[in-house]
UniProtKB/TrEMBL annotation, chain A:
<keyword id="KW-0812">Transmembrane</keyword>
<feature type="transmembrane region" description="Helical">
    <location>
        <begin position="320"/>
        <end position="340"/>
    </location>
</feature>
<keyword id="KW-0472">Membrane</keyword>
<keyword id="KW-0924">Ammonia transport</keyword>
<keyword id="KW-0732">Signal</keyword>
<keyword id="KW-1133">Transmembrane helix</keyword>
<feature type="transmembrane region" description="Helical">
    <location>
        <begin position="135"/>
        <end position="157"/>
    </location>
</feature>
<protein>
    <recommendedName>
        <fullName>Ammonium transporter</fullName>
    </recommendedName>
</protein>
<feature type="transmembrane region" description="Helical">
    <location>
        <begin position="164"/>
        <end position="185"/>
    </location>
</feature>
From TrEMBL, chain B:
<dbReference type="InterPro" id="IPR002187">
    <property type="entry name" value="N-reg_PII"/>
</dbReference>
<comment type="similarity">
    <text>Belongs to the P(II) protein family.</text>
</comment>
<protein>
    <recommendedName>
        <fullName>Nitrogen regulatory protein P-II</fullName>
    </recommendedName>
</protein>
<comment type="subunit">
    <text>Homotrimer.</text>
</comment>
<dbReference type="InterPro" id="IPR017918">
    <property type="entry name" value="N-reg_PII_CS"/>
</dbReference>
<keyword id="KW-0597">Phosphoprotein</keyword>
<keyword id="KW-0804">Transcription</keyword>
<dbReference type="InterPro" id="IPR015867">
    <property type="entry name" value="N-reg_PII/ATP_PRibTrfase_C"/>
</dbReference>
<dbReference type="Pfam" id="PF00543">
    <property type="entry name" value="P-II"/>
</dbReference>
Length: 445, 112
């Protein structure tokens, strides 16, 4: 995402060099001069980032909430809406207290942003991050933690205790999300140093959320009656509404990750269109050929798979390459959720792993392929060839999976101990979380 | 008096109601139900998860009529609810002991 964190320092050095031969000034004045010569606030960039930030929030509430909510059974609808809402609020607060510092606090570590910006210390309305106010950058990044954390709940939907999910997410954001975000997007981060392409969060958001969801699904175990009882989605209508909101909001997510209203944002926008179209048609085609019917849920799933796949690649591939990237991701995700998952027998309720992690891997690796100029892309990092770029992409994917899987597993165990169990009682699970955890019902017919 | 209980295909409800009204039936109770008979259910697939849906949606009619028109009512339902495909439904006829109209207190045939 951000080269921007690099730029202020670079610009300061250049400005300082330019100022040196000029008439004598004392050091303090020179510093002040430098500060004024640093990149100025661009109102166009700022306007776009304000909108993008709100668009990403719209992806979560109501986007993810409805997309997921429609996929569960009637008795658990409110638990999904409520978990999403509470997680979003909680992550916002965590982010301003210490999350931003842990991710972008300015430390030299490759894994940890440090304590330099705890409670957003040192940031004021006039502080800039690149050409936008730092508060806007903080807000934009904040929505990414919220959506990533909200995505995880699909893995263990319909059976987790409300308190357990909140405690887990708070710890997970702290020990998994912030470090990985630092690795990918901070100028001192591990992946950033490897010159890995992760434009808007293939590793940070999708692989991360998918792995955490899978670990959760395995640790909690399958829902009662899984594989025997009918667990069909209660409203695919709401699922499509949610998916479509995600599609629209994703322009803030991807084109916003350009951190400005320029050429890269335009590229990310058209790629987000074409990859998603490829994703929808890819899923529909594979499903029609293998089952004889093209399902609406398949269309919505292909939409998400395409969006996930283009996320890490949106700023580096071309619009035609993006079509293939989206379609390939859909085909792989379809195979994963319809075949592999059923053989393995784990109950990732809403296929967070099968779509977000698998689609995220296809996108992250595919970014290293489709960025090739011969495939219409923007070129490799430095003077790399495709093989070398792909190796670095795979390394970033591997580190993310390993880090997230190990830490998530430990955190689930800790939360289980602290809370006296992660799962609701079998009676509560049968009754539904809406009534037993929240004391209300979603629908009164 | 007879109580006629019929399970029919939901889309046939309006046609059956019209035909019964035409032969003098003045009321009925209608319930949306699920059930199974000779017609087997169907399979639904959600991202590869297959669910056999064994209970098929039907509409249940309960009609209380005088003995004199019971056979005609049964015949009318059978004629109008038919599609000649499996799953057209069933009709049951029971003896009805007693009937009361709540508003007036009229009983039996007068209450129908």
């Amino acid at each position: 995402m951000s080269n921007m964190t690099k730029y202020p320092g670079l610009a300061a050095v250049l400005a300082a060099l330019a100022a040196l031969p000029a008439w004598a000034q004392d050091a303090a004045e020179a510093v002040e001069e430098v500060a004024e010569a640093a990149p100025a606030l661009d109102t166009g960039d700022t306007a776009w980032m304000l909108i993008s930030t709100a668009l990403v929030l719209f992806m979560i509430l109501p986007g993810v909430a409805l997309f997921y909510g429609g996929l569960v059974r009637t008795k658990n609808m409110l638990s999904i809406l409520m978990q999403t809402t509470a997680i979003t609020a909680m992550c916002m607060i965590i982010y301003v207290l210490y999350g931003y510092s842990f991710a972008f606090g300015g430390s030299d570590s490759a894994f940890f942003g440090g304590f330099g910006k705890l409670f957003l210390a040192g940031i004021g309305p006039d502080t800039l991050s690149g050409t936008i106010p730092e508060y806007v950058f903080v807000s934009f990044q904040m929505t990414f933690v919220c959506i990533t954390s909200a995505l995880i709940i699909g893995g263990f939907a319909e059976r987790i205790r409300f308190g357990a999910v909140l405690l887990f997410v708070a710890l997970w954001a702290t020990f998994v999300y912030f470090p990985v975000a630092h690795m990918a997007w901070d100028a001192n981060g591990l992946f950033f140093g490897w010159e890995v392409f992760d434009f808007a969060g293939g590793t940070v958001v999708h692989i991360n959320a998918g792995v955490a969801a899978l670990v959760g699904a395995v640790v909690l175990g399958p829902r009662i009656g899984y594989g025997k009882e009918n667990m069909a989605p209660h409203s695919l209508t709401l699922t499509l509404v949610g998916a479509a909101i995600l599609f629209v909001g994703w322009f803030g997510f991807n084109a916003g990750s350009a951190l400005g209203a320029g050429a890269t944002a335009g590229l990310a926008m058209i790629n987000t269109f074409t990859a998603t179209a490829g994703g929808i048609l890819g899923w529909v085609l594979v499903e029609y050929l293998s089952r004889g019917k093209a399902s609406m849920l398949g269309g919505a799933s292909g939409m998400i798979a395409g969006l996930v796949a283009i996320t890490p690649a949106a700023g580096v591939v071309g619009p035609v390459g993006a079509i293939f990237l989206g379609a390939i991701a859909s085909a792989v995700c379809y195979w994963f959720v319809a075949v592999v998952k059923n053989r393995l027998g784990y109950d990732d309720s809403l296929d967070v792993f099968g779509i977000h992690c698998i689609g995220g891997i296809v996108g992250a690796v595919g970014a290293g392929v489709f960025c090739a100029p011969s495939l219409g892309g923007q070129g490799f990092a430095g003077d790399r060839g495709m093989a070398e770029q792909v190796i670095y992409q795979v390394m970033a994917v591997g580190v993310t999976i390993l880090w997230c899987a190990v830490v998530s597993f430990i955190l689930f165990k800790i939360v289980g101990l602290v809370m006296g169990g992660l799962r609701v009682t079998p009676e509560a699970e049968r009754e539904g979380l809406d009534l037993t955890a929240h004391g209300e019902r979603a629908y009164h017919y | 008096m007879k109580l006629i209980i019929a399970a029919i295909k939901p889309f046939k409800l309006e046609e059956v109601r019209e035909a019964l009204t035409a032969i003098g039936v003045r009321g009925m109770m209608v319930t949306e139900i699920k059930g199974f008979g000779a017609q087997s259910g169907h399979t639904e697939i959600y991202r590869g998860a297959e669910y056999a849906v064994n209970f098929v949606p039907k509409v249940k009619l309960e009609i209380a009529v005088a003995d004199a028109i019971a056979d005609e009512v049964v015949g009318t339902i059978r004629r109008t609810a038919r599609t000649d495909k499996i799953g057209d439904g069933k009709i049951f006829v029971l003896d009805l002991e007693h009937a009361v109209r709540v508003r007036t207190g009229e009983t039996d045939d007068d209450a129908l």
